[in-house]
Amino acid sequence: MVGIPRGTTIEGLRFGDLVDVAPSILSHLDELKALNGRAHGEVAIREAITELEMWAAHTQFSLVDYKHTNGQTIKIIKEWKEAINSVKDSEALLQSLKNSPYYGQFSDRTQLWEGRLGELDVCLGQMADIQRKWVYLEPIFGRGALPHEASRFARVDADFRLILADVAKDARLISLCSRTGLRRNLEQVVEQLGRCQRALAQFLQEKRAAFPRFYFLGDDDLLEILGQSTNPLVIQAHLRKLFQGIDKVVFGEGNLTLVAMVSADGEVVLLDAPVRLVPQVETWLQHLSDRMASTLRLLTVDALRDDGLNPGKYPSQVLCLAEEVRFCRECERALDSSSLPSLHTSLQHQLTQLTGLQPRDEGLLRLKLKALILDLIHHIDVVQQLITAQARSTAEWTWQRQLRFYLDGDKVVVRQIDARFDYTYEYQGNAPKLVHTPLTDKCYLTLTQAMSMGLGGNPFGPAGTGKTESVKALGALFGRQVLVFNCDEGIDVVSMGRIFVGLVQCGAWGCFDEFNRLEQTVLSAVSQHIQAIQDAIHHRSPSVTLGQYTARVDPNSAIFITLNPAGKGYGGRQKMPDNLKQLFRPVVMSVPDNELIAETLLFAEGFREAKPLARKTVAVFSNEASIVVQALLLNTLSKLTFADSRRFDALIQDIFYTGGPEKKDGKESMAPFGALLEPLQKSAEEMGIRLGDRQLHKLFQLHEQLRQRIGVVVVGPSQSGKSTLWRVLKRALIISGQRLACYELNPKATTRTRLLGHMDMDTREWTDGIITMAARNVIKDTQVHTWIVCDGDIDPEWVEALNSVLDDNRLLTMPSGERIQFGANVNFLFETHHLQFASPATVSRLGMLLTSEEDVSPRDVVEKWVRAQGPEESPEIAGWLEDSFYRILQIVDQRQTTAGIRLPPIALTQNGLSLLGGVRSKPEFLVALYRGFAGSVPLDARKELAAAVFEGEHLPDASQPDLVYFDDRTRMLQMYTEDTGQGLTREQVEGQGQAPPLVLTPNAQATTSLIQAWLTDASHPSICVVGPEGSGKASLMQNSLQTLPLSRTATLSCSAQTSAHTLLHTLHQHTVQVSGAGGRVLRPKDGGGQLIVLLRGLNQTSPDRYGTSQLHALLQQLLTYHGFFDDALEWIGLEGIQFVVTMALEGAGRSKTT
């Protein structure tokens, strides 16, 4: 075209040849441009097709071992999402080629690939679906469930294992396309697995219909019971989930019958007839339910025949029920005979006798007496109300509005006004009773009248007013099973429908706590179910239809809801739809009468002077006053700041010790913990910590809070000793002989679904989260005390799902309808720096321990550091620290600034000590001290800091203290200069790749030297480099990292889209997972060394609406607990991994970092 001779090669082409044909080139310029564009276009298509071929040749499934129930280990596929996304990306690449004008001549090859990828996409989707169902069903059918479907599943199992075996031989994704008939085979397996799954669902539904309490078990638990229906260990593990008062049962000879039921507090109730264990588990469980009710009914009749009270002969529930019936009988006689004053005197005398019987231990008899005393105090109050109202007959309103118990034949009935209810004899165990107050009386009256009209009840009001507890207490008075469900946005209409079916069939009460946390659409749809149930109960209909279920109706069922007000500090609450409001009678739960409650509880504990103690909390008798002081100190001091705690001490001194012996020391609240003192001291000694009186007080307070409540939150600023407190206590309890285990996590380091679990809306399968997994594990062994430690920010998105766990219910409810009941062996321990976003509903449920910066002294940290130094260190270092460290620390604390973050004194102390290891002389010590502190103060304050540090020392140049270093060779202070920079070798320059070589200015030398000192420290501390944009943070860091032997660097550049998953993916790319003595760990690849993970621009990540960055939360967990939970919810530790971050100063697009 342009006249260049034919046969000229690129290698033989000369510039002169082009000059000779320049006119021709210019005349054909347009044609040449078009030809060049076509060449580029065709090259792009060829490269894309080559890329596809390379992808097909090298992209493989990620395989993992799976243990089949037949004992065989086979390979199954993991990371389905990654494989499917890979195919989608390839399909998108092919689609983009079609837009090219040069696509035509490559259409045959691209259409071939299009067909392959389309086929692969379909097959992958089917295989992922099959494997998910197969992994779920295989253990079930392997245990022998559903024998009539076993042959069908066996065929499916064999077909799918054959496919998996082929994949294991050739793990390339593209190899699926070469298997003849694979797609048809997969379609058949999908269809057959669907049949198996439907058969299983039908089987479970039949079992739940036969024994409705199964509705409140998850599928896995139910299948375990069905598969081992006569195994005593399995029976004991699941009984407490089915019967709220039965903790375990006593087996007869040969484990063939059940002869008694046992409460969690050890109360044994012999059944009136043994229950024979038969393979049909639903049959013998129903027999157990029947025998439970008939036993309690007969015992109640026997107790009423006895002349006196016999606490040792009858269960607590029977004793209290018989006394209720007796009281009503005697009160109505007194009303008819106008002898109420003499009845009042008789009851007072009986109260004196019972309080005098209080045993010293916390055994079963004490629990029974406390329950009887609480009821007796209420009876006295009722008689006093009748006397005040001058009642003369049983028709008086004052009497009619009371809950009244009567024996009708051999059954007890409960009346209130014109409402009548059957007592249903559900065994309640020895659960603590609720104190009767005017508020509970009003609540009971509203709820019973609502039920008599076929409606539900709706106690509403602020947190801590006893809404849920009042419903539970009324249910206990009626002998009902009360099931509490904590509502959140994870529960949908189908889940609620399944719960409703279980409730109406087993005659239980359902209390839906924080009902208005459900989604608005769910609230509206649920109202139809509730109305249908209420109509059926009111009209005594035998059955009700709820969606796809038709359930028989037990008229003793009822539905209650409790609410916190929408807004007013309660996040995530919806406004109740009007059609739902009209189904429930509301009752306002205001602040209860705390004085009356305190008085009643003091009486129940055996106090003779309960009224003045409760009303004024003043010194009455010295022994009782000291107990009150202990309670006040333990439960109040923990919530106060350092300054307020001193004022409270003074207040206690003024009120309780005025006119009496003065309180001489601060040991009042320590008295009950003498046995723990020695283990605490040993624990602290092992950890290199010195415990002062204030730390001991905090430890005792934490111990007492954990004893009193299931949930405790430790609140305080960073470095105020929060983690150290519970770790010292944990070790002390282990030393004292207690078996104690911990689950530790940052709840904001992962998604809500991975934390709490989630329901697959397509398959209705439940997948556990970290907390639900931990919950299942801790209830398996009640002999081990377990702390679930949630160290991180608290917000309503996740913590309110635990509200029913944190109150007296101790119950974790899940959208699947499953319920996990925690015993006294479990505590949730929260650690956070504020409760800004926690609602009152959560805070009111938690015990609280407040820490402050004053609780931990920098001197303690320094002394611990000195003790940890080896004998080779300079013996004079302690004196040098005493001379200057604390004085310098005060200056730094006043002038500090680090990217807008104020570091607490303890963090500053650790910075100051970070470079002092191994110093031999005073000048070396001063340089290390200055460099450790200098990074925490702004540039304009460095000279002031240097003047204070180097006081009395001669500096080479006092105007540039940052450039001073200690020369090991001359043992003198020197300055970094242009000449002291070690020039880069050729290898170092080549190792920097495309980046230009770093010119080591004096400032760069000083900074690099500081970073290298931290990087080579034996403790491998995490490092944060802060500076403005363009100040060379990353370059300095890369330069420092290049000098480290046996280390590799993994760099992650952070942006608003960077998540915790991104960091974990980076870790997995550069590490290998191995099994160690303590479990599975990630270690650097290629046989060891140190992996340094560099996070650039850490504060560019985007926080959520509560101000928390998921990446920051994960990083905190990795630094604090050195591990994370993987997708299989297994804890993965870290070894040989160090984290280094860079951050720009706060500004646009940068989040605040804590």
From TrEMBL:
Protein name: Cytoplasmic dynein 2 heavy chain 1
Molecular-function GO terms, alphabetical: ATP binding; ATP hydrolysis activity; dynein intermediate chain binding; dynein light intermediate chain binding; minus-end-directed microtubule motor activity
Domain Cytoplasmic dynein 2 heavy chain 1 AAA+ ATPase: 861-951
Span of domain Dynein heavy chain hydrolytic ATP-binding dynein motor region: 423-622
Primary location class: cytoplasm
Domain ATPase dynein-related AAA: 712-846
Taxonomic lineage: Eukaryota, Metazoa, Ecdysozoa, Nematoda, Chromadorea
Pfam families: AAA_5 (PF07728), AAA_6 (PF12774), AAA_7 (PF12775), DHC_N2 (PF08393), DYNC2H1_AAA_dom (PF21264)
Taxonomic source organism: Mesorhabditis spiculigera
One of the protein's GO biological processes: cilium movement involved in cell motility
GO cellular component, one term: 9+2 motile cilium
Family statement: Belongs to the dynein heavy chain family.
Keywords, ordered alphabetically: ATP-binding, Coiled coil, Cytoplasm, Cytoskeleton, Dynein, Microtubule, Motor protein, Nucleotide-binding
Sequence ranges assigned to domain Dynein heavy chain linker in this UniProt record: 12-300
Segments traversing the membrane: none
Compartment(s) of residence: Cytoplasm, Cytoskeleton
